[in-house]
Amino acid sequence: MKKILTITALAFAGQFTWAQDGANELKNFRFGLKVTPSVNWYTPEDKLMDSNGPTVKFGGGLILEFRLAKVASLQTGFQIDSEGGKIKYKNGGATANTSTMSYYYNIANDKIISYNPSNSYSTEITHYQLNERQFKATYITIPLMLN
User: Fold this and answer.
1) Is the pTM of this model over 0.70?
2) Phi/psi at 16 (nearest 5 deg)?
3) Considering only CA atoms, which of 45, 42, 47, 43 is closest in space to residue 98?
4) Nearest-CA neighbor of 140 among 80, 58, 90?
5) Could you give the CA distance from residue 63 to residue 20 in angstroms, rounded to a whole number?
6) Which DSSP state fits 95?
7) Which of 80, 85, 35, 81 is nearest to 55 (CA)?
8) How far apart are CA 38 and CA 51, in angstroms?
9) Which of 61, 74, 109, 135 is 20 to 30 Å from the Cα of 142, by its Cα?
């Protein structure tokens, strides 16, 4: 009995819905805003680097729709997305060797120089070791779609 009452109620409820009414009464121009959250991470293939966890980034933009006919429209807009990730380096210790990501800064010449064992004890040269690095990228997208 409950099944018959449920089917009858759904049959009568369907007559009071307006699902397809006004489908051809679309506006000639519509717009909307778009927000795109994302979770990004890098997984390097190099043996000296490793992933340092995910980062949460956001993007967004404007969507425009121009109606060309009853069944055709042109959609465009622009979107700005921010992406990136974090990398940590597997350094072998405080001294520079082949398994250390580091660089040397020559104060007198104001230049970055490569590793040289004879220069490592000079007072004009400062050793910097990279432990982690964060990458950031921004993309601008201009979509174009014909529906």
Assistant:
1) no
2) -100, 10
3) 47
4) 80
5) 24
6) S
7) 85
8) 17
9) 135
Over 90: is that where the pLDDT of 105 sits? no
- pLDDT per residue over 25-54, tens digit each? 678 999 999 999 999 988 888 778 888 889
Name the phi and psi angles at 71, rounded to 5. Answer: -120, 10
Structure tokens at 10: 């759904």
Amino acid identity, position 78: F
Q: Which amino acid is at 141?
A: T
Residue 65 near residue 29, CB atoms below 8 Å: yes
Across 112-136, average pLDDT: 72
First and final C-alpha spacing in the chain? 47
Identify the pLDDT of residue 29. Answer: 92
**Calpha distance 11→5 (Å, rounded):** 10
Residue 77 banded pLDDT, cuts 50, 70, 90: very high
* Alpha-carbon gap, residue 68 to 118, rounded angstroms: 73
What's the CA gap between 4 and 7, in Å, rounded? 5
Residue 74's DSSP bridge partners are 66, 146
Per the listing, tokens 């974090």 go with 86
37 token code pair = 């959250």
